[in-house]
Amino acid sequence: MTVGEIAGLIAAIAFAILVVFLVRVLIRLAKTIEKAEQTVNEANTTIEVVTKDVDLLSRQVEGLLVKSNELLNDINGKVATIDPLFTAVADLSESVSELNSSSRNIVTKVGGIGKTTAKATVAGKVGGTAMKFFKHKKTTTDTTGGK
């Protein structure tokens, strides 16, 4: 073998080794690309599932908000209905407080004499206040249609 043939043989072997390494690199690259495609496909599937779940969740939240608004409106209506009751109770408690104050003044003025008369006066005032309250309540219910 001549030097040219040996050089050609070395070049052919080097070229063959280069081709083998390039083939191995290309196979690894193909596997990496395949894994990347699989990852992208899984990501797309996940995005589709999440999108469907979010759509469903948003519909359910919207329904819940509608029901909450209806419930709140119902509660507001019922609170408005019982508001006069609280006003009447506040007025009655104020009248009772005034009555207590008046009865204390009467008892201190009367002292030991006429305790029975003072008690009768207090009872009369309590009865009169109660009658006014119930009379006011009856006229209020009669004007609202018996409710």
From TrEMBL:
Keywords on record: Coiled coil, Membrane, Transmembrane, Transmembrane helix
The species this protein was found in: Candidatus Enterococcus mangumiae
Domain of life where this protein originates: Bacteria
Transmembrane segments annotated in the record for this chain: 6-27
Name the record gives this protein: General stress protein
Signal sequence, start to end: none
One Pfam family this sequence matches: DUF948
Coiled coil region boundaries: 26-53
InterPro entries on file: UPF0478
